Amino acid sequence: MSRRILLGIGILLTVVVSLFPFLWFVVTSLKSQRHVEAVPPTWLPGGELGFYRAALVDYHLTDYILNSIVVASSTTVMTLAIGIPAAYALSRLRVSGKTWILGGLLGVSMFPQIAIAGPVWRILDQIGGLNTRWGVLLPYVTLTLPLVIWILASFFKELPTELEEAAKIDGCGPWRTMVLVMLPLAAPGIFTAGILTFIYAWNEFFFALLILTQPDKQTLPVGIALFQGEFTMPWGELAAASVIATLPLVILVLLFQRWIISGLSAGAVKG
Amino acid sequence: MRLACALIVGLADLGGAAAADEHVTLRFVSWKPDHPQVWEEALARFTHEHPNISILREIAPHSSTAYHDLLTQKLKNRDATVDLFFMDVIWVPEFAAAGWARPLDHRFPPTEQRKFLPATITAGTYGSRIYGIPSRIDGGMLYYRKDLLKTYGFAPPRTWPELVQQAETIVAGESAKTPALRGYSGQFKQYEGLVCNMLEFIESNGGRLVGADGARAALATPASLQAVRFVRERIIGRIASRALLTYQEPESLATFVQGNAVFHRNWPYAWEVANDPQRSSIAGKVGVTSLPHFPSGRSVSALGGWLYGISAYSAHPEEAWTFIQFLSSYGMQKYFALRAGIAPSRTALFSDQALLQGRPFFHDQFEVFEGTTPRPRSPLYPAVSHVLQRYFSRALAFGDLDLAAEAASADRQIVDLLALTGATR
Amino acid sequence: MTRGGADTRTGLSDQAAWLMLAPALGFTLVFALYPVVDSFLLSLHRILLVLPDQEQAFVGLANYRQLAADPVARQAFVVTLGFVALSTILEVLLGLAIALVIHEQFRGRGWVRAAALIPWAIPTVVASQMWRFIFNDQYGFANLLLYGDHIADYVPWLAYPGFAWMAIVLADVWKTSSFAGLLILAGLQLIPDDLYEAARIDGANAWRRFWHITLPLLRPALLLALLFRTMDAFRVFDLVFVMTQGGPGGATQVLQFYGYKALFTEGRMGYGAAISVTVFLAIFVLSLFYIHAVGSKLMEKERA
Q1: pLDDT mean for each 10 residues of chain B (425 residues)
Q2: pTM of the predicted model, to two decimals?
Q3: What is the distance in angstroms between the Cα of B404 and the nearest Cα belonging to chain A?
Q4: Does the first or last residue of chain A, that is N or C, have fewer Cβ atoms within 10 Å of its Cβ?
């Protein structure tokens, strides 16, 4: 049946096109220096791990990894801490101009970085946030809040009201209601929003480039973008560093594919 | 140009209890040196001579642009922890006009300045004051395959057309043995190095990048246009691979040391790499000479190199000067030249017998260094450079571009930019 | 999304709600809205960071006039618009294909979905280095695939203005089609199965079902994907920074990269701000246009 064949081709193409370009980098990272410089290139790697050692030790990738972990995790925690109450208020409480606020947040998520980069840099300059991890956190939280609030607001809205009313009868205020009643119910949504925030902060380059100029403070994307060898272009080491930087994301995607997909479409289509 | 690590290297005994009456720690922003042990020994010698001063080195990225952005950001912040730094020769007007670097005339009077190569002193000067002390000299030079030129009976080329002709002959003759061999390799990506490469072509034809008074067309003059046209029609995609339009120093040097280029334009550092059997397949087969010129011009080498500067926000300018004096002394420049192959900025060292015996290479290079030419000098140089980079890159990448119109447009943009700074003087 | 209701049911006090909202609004105000206003104010001044003694003169719209006459800006504008147009169209088309595939029921669908998500999850900087390597003139996979052992035929892709621009488009399409696909997938899932059943009973073949049921009902989702991708494509920066630095010949210099260079390398704060505001306004106008389109579609749907 032609439909099955068509689907088969579609599946094959989706998988091959999605994975193959990156596999070429994986192959390169497992070659030896001699094979990386071979023309024409060799198809298969020898399985050497020398480039990984070089990337981690000679190129101090461990420092960049550490910075990325700290920045991405703290962005996630902070965005959730601020986004959860905001989403709760916008979905369950009486707020005038609610539509405007949600629309405005959506607008902010579409801001081009360059439109705010200069002034954000000046603010950070004045408060001493340049070349600090918390300095880069501030724009990250700002730019991830809209998505988090949209995802969580649509999540909260779906939850039944009975429990909330019961809590109110028991004399719980809005904060206690949110924390004790709603949070456990919204856990899947919070988890989704958290993963998406983490991925954003892990991958962000523009603000990191502007704010973190000191090599010991830089995150992985900056390190990989500015990757340069002393006398030649170190493609093998770069490929190894790229694989290392991507690995956590691949794991996240494999484990939580379902959540990520629901999160990405929630903010958008349920509106 | 390693991915820079910002280890802060404390070279003196920081916990030093046996303090002189006032112990000062200087913070020195520099790149990760190619020869770390040589530097460490030098610094150890300094702290031995000056026990009351210790040096903390802050290692910045090796890419000049990334280094520039880091350092200027610190200076914009009036960061008092920076005492002294290396400046690229093209930054002096910017650092001087912005008030980031201290004028050093009273410490470094003309009698001292005369002991250095004039081009390096000009590079350190802005207006009528000097802000940078030359640590070394750098200039573009022509590397060539001694073995191939000898086989085909050529002497190193004196003019660009000669170079093209030799390259064509050799590449054609070697095509069976080395199919990947090309005639020329240099730096033509849209970035700062493109300006250096093109300056060498244009000025060796009697042209200029920027009019002498900063207000007149320079790129749209016949001499400049002719040189650009020559690169476009005779070099890129002809004797050289078109891939040069994506090459910076590392890629172009790799091509040469893999044995895939007859001629190669690079800075002095390439000599050591090209002759190191570990990293080069052509070790021992490399010659070096001045860059060629056009029949009517003279050889021109773009001036590169690094200067010591003292931050305007440093609390220890006295000690910083002591340190610079030490590093730029005759003895230390000789030490760096012998141990690390760094070309000295003091003229007298080029006739120092002990040095020339250890590094005969400097004898051949002196002529090149004497002819070095600075890039345009302006506090807005980064913006001027972007205009130049774009013009050259367009000229070379678009074969059918109307060169004269494009050059005139670039001239106008540069004149407009330079007019912005004129307002302050 | 705010069809009201919930708030009146619980009837909690406004004060607590505003308190809950305050930090989020504070961040947005300080680090997003104020900067946009500040960018606009800066763009009306001549500010050169390297000339601190120079008066920061109010120059009105002079920076914008200069921008309109600037050949570099014009080229950047054309390059950006072309990039946005071609990449978003390709992304939505490919996204639709991906969505149709992963919407089907088949064994191992979870794995295929995960595979499709990988390009989206890879850091853009990594993807950029990867594509730069694939298009390398000597070691690149593109040449190996096309020319194999004939190294004399190897093409330095990124040295040609047209190819370099296409390479950026291609890298962006590879990286983000799956995101467009997910938005479209969500739309697909909203289409009730019985519509297809009814059509099948009426004897409509697969192609007709796609053309007459799927596509019309998918329109809001497609527009939404187009909106998100357009806004995002306008902000392209990482790909250009890593792959080409705007070259060769400015063929890949997009507006956001030009603005970055003016602001942060050249220190022309006023002029750079004018570029920033222009990018912002372009996106703003486009999104109004889209939202109008999406909004009216949604309304049509509700009326129907």
Answers
A1: 33 38 87 80 94 87 75 81 92 93 95 94 93 94 96 97 97 93 96 94 94 80 96 96 93 93 93 88 93 94 94 94 96 92 92 89 84 88 94 95 95 90 52
A2: 0.90
A3: 34
A4: N
